[in-house]
Design brief:
The chain is an alpha+beta fold. Helices cover about 30% and strands about 20% of the residues. The radius of gyration is 22 Å and the shape is globular. The structure holds ligand DP6.
Length: about 425
Amino acid sequence: MAEWIHTVTARTPTNIAVIKYWGKRDESLILPVNDSISVTLDPQHLCTTTTVAVSPSFDQDRMWLNGKEISLSGGRYQNCLREIRARGEDFEDKEKGIKIAKQDWQKLRVHVASYNNFPTAAGLASSAAGLACLVFALAKLMNAKEDASQLSAIARQGSGSACRSLYGGFVKWIMGKEVNGSDSLAVQLADENHWDDLVIIIAVVSSRQKETSSTTGMRDTVETSILLQHRAREVVPKRIVKMEEAIRNRNFSLFAQLACADSNQFHAVCLDTCPPIFYMNDTSHRIISCIEKWNRFEESPQVAYTFDAGPNAVLIARNRKTAALLLQRLLYFFPPSADTDMGSYVLGDKSILKDAGVEGINDVQALPPPPEIKDNVPAQRNGGEVSYFICTRPGRGPLLLSDESLALLDHSTGLPK
Ligand code: DP6
């Protein structure tokens, strides 16, 4: 009998923190110095798809990321693999002649193929979606009975922010207090339907600068920043309570005020690190000014901004109408270069372009300056600073894909298709 191959394919979203995780109290278990809260982004626009396969014919664990083979020998991958293997249960598929006993998972080797539906080079949290997807897919493959929170504690050991990608909607990573990390896990605060007015626009900022990785950056911060200690002990605990309240009551003003303040404090903590870390650039700062001016002009927040360990802006608009006004402003200040077509400059949910009345490059050129800058010196329009925008919204959590055509590994060879 030909040796069987058992495969599972899953899709997992990325997430953006609105109260940031920055700093570990335990490096190897990945235990944070404070709680954090995130919004899961719609996987239709930003997600990782992963196929995992197991077969007695495989002689080593192997992984391919976006078609290229990468090593699985890193400690973080190994921790996730080990944790899931230890939780595998008996599995049987009589039709395919597959029978795996609980203890077999330790010796069976796996193949993993992973693909991001967004450019990895854009500096969007690909490790969060990737590690969450690996853990989720392996758990299904090995018939582990753990729930999403228990899986989040395993994904956490792959990359901290990954634990928040095990749920849709609004998610809190509880820092926990146990030394072994068993209570450091994610819980869902509200699902993606709870606050479905929100629209998210990501500005992918052009930058060639090599950035400090989150892992190294936060290690330096923990070692050198006094501000971080104040943030973790005094500021974040109070903000977490308020952010939960803002989400529960769909209070956009409070939500925006907290998200912006927390992003700014995270970057202040980076600046307080020795040597200082600069993740935002001039374009990021220009985007902040544009939002701040507008919010002030309207006398209540219309849009929240937040920036991770890079210059890209994640902008959260209170509803579709505000999102259209936001897109007009973004295209006014950051127009595409003359030879770019709008279809490749605004990605994701393109219907917002229509709402904004900017379907072609001529519409962009005809945009009037936004009213909040009218009295000032002529506004600067900064073509070329933004690579593209992605329009999206809060989205659902991990999903199993049963359609065989979506699998990334061939079901007869176990190799990438
Ligand atoms: C700025 O989860 O990438 O995005 O745990 O070392 O893998 P490791 O770091 P990572 O850090 C993310 C930091 C952040 C804020 C956040 O997502 O909360």
